[in-house]
Amino acid sequence: MIQSYKQQPKLQETYDTIIIGSGMGGLATAAILAKEGQKVLVLERHYTAGGFTHVFKRKDYEWDVGIHYIGEMQRENSILRKLFNYVSNSQLKWADIGEVYDKIVIGDQHYDFVKGVTNFKKQLISYFPEEEKAIHTYVNLVFEAVKTSKNYYMSKAMPPFLEKTLGGYLKKPFYKWADKTTYEVLSSLTNNETLIKVLTGQYGDYGLSPKQSSFYMHASVARHYFDGGSFPVGGSSQIVKTIAPVIAASGGTILINAEVQEVLIENNTAIGVLMKDGKKIYAKNIVSNAGIMTTYNKLLPTATVEKHQLKQQLQQVKQSVAHASLYIGLEGTPEELQLPKTNYWIYPAEGDHDTCVQNYLEDLSQPFPVVYLSFPSAKDPDWSNRYPGKSSIDIITLIPYETFKKWENTPWKKRGAEYETLKEEFAQRLLNELYKQLPQVKGKINCYELSTPLTTQHFVNYEKGEIYGLDHSPSRFRQSFLKPRTPIKNFYLTGQDIVTAGVGGALFSGVLTSMAITGNNILKKV
User: Fold this and answer.
1) b/e per residue 311-345 (b: at least 16 CB within 10 A)
2) Averaged pLDDT in 10-residue chunks for the chain of 526 residues
3) What's the gap between Cα 380 and its chain centre?
4) Are 201 and 349 in contact (CB under 8 A)?
5) pTM over 0.85
6) What's CA 175's distance to the chain center, in Å?
7) How far apart, in Å, are the Cα atoms of 62 and each of 54, 97, 163, 205, 241?
8) Cα(403)–Cα(381) distance, rounded to whole angstroms?
């Protein structure tokens, strides 16, 4: 099911569809097409499949690199839950992370986000009794903005002639919210800056501060977690593990260590791929899940890119933020260490989110504008079966790519002493943030490792080590080229760039891309 290209596996003469990249968008597209009877080949350049859903292991630990919690899994009839069931044949199981899914920490103040819309509102009103009206209105607007997105996304999968005639009409209600920034909408409801800071306390989930981000993006994330958060039982490696058999059932394969050099194009039609070792593999359709920047900058022939002015499209969008992640292994069970399941979002006491980001970007010695703590070993009920007596913690913060740029051409794990020293400085600062919140873990740490934007660049092949593909600004949602179809016949895009950041967005991109390829209404089958 998952084989290594280095082992020279037996390949078919031709496939129905080749997918470049095995992130969530690629896996979802592959599984859905396989269920439509297609023979699909998924090509992954990394030595492990899954993109941001993969795990890595060191010593006696494993860490999930991109999955920290997923919403909508507790609602049996939610579209995301049904989709995960569909692409994994209901083999993927989820654990509820509990009553409080996110804790927003501002200075010494704590604000809990509790699951269930009524509870969520009640809890917030207990912190801000004079803002009751604003809180009710806010929640209503979140629902309203999300509701308008369905037709917007559906129009992306329509055949071109239909999109031309109906597209504008279908998208119009969506733009009412997508065109405004998060801060613009919230400041029209209240002038309580602390409340705004708390309500936007999950902005790290899409990486753009309130005065820059589209309110639709904010609403989409807020709504996603209203019913609580969940974690895959057995860790995020279960995602690939449960989807691979679905792809294999139709004669498809996932290949790792399989780097694509270029998409083969003849007469403006995609016909196959040229591998790094010079081998050619052919298919009726080619799908890129490598991100639109990587796809247009690296994977398409120059003549094709120039012919369709694809570089001009890329001028219309910006890369999202880069990040650093500290992966920590501890001695002791999650229970012994009293690790919560709740995520912590930690912010400076002074200043709004945008000001904090600005100050930090101008001077990295300023307080981190956001620090996110996640406790995967506490969230996964199967963890202690696999790693008895151990625990793990992830800490994430924003770090500009430029901080590490001078080492960009050095090999992974061999970037030199100065690089390691700089990493250690950031690691120590992040550990201090952890000890402030959970002093009991001091002295219990066995090992830790910091990933930088260069690590992300190396493994996920994102040019600037960005974590969320493209920036989620209002203008991003106006770009009509961010959809499955491209000007090249039989060449499609999938992944978070054509929908929104994160696993849910990438999963849904699989639906849109499959619909564009097959012309079938996949959602009816889900």
Assistant:
1) eebbeebbbbbbbbbbbbbbbbbbeebebbbbbbb
2) 91 95 96 98 91 80 89 92 97 97 97 98 98 98 96 93 90 97 98 98 94 97 96 95 97 96 98 97 97 94 96 86 89 98 97 95 94 97 96 93 80 79 93 98 95 69 61 93 97 95 92 97 92
3) 19
4) no
5) yes
6) 23
7) 10, 19, 45, 22, 16
8) 38
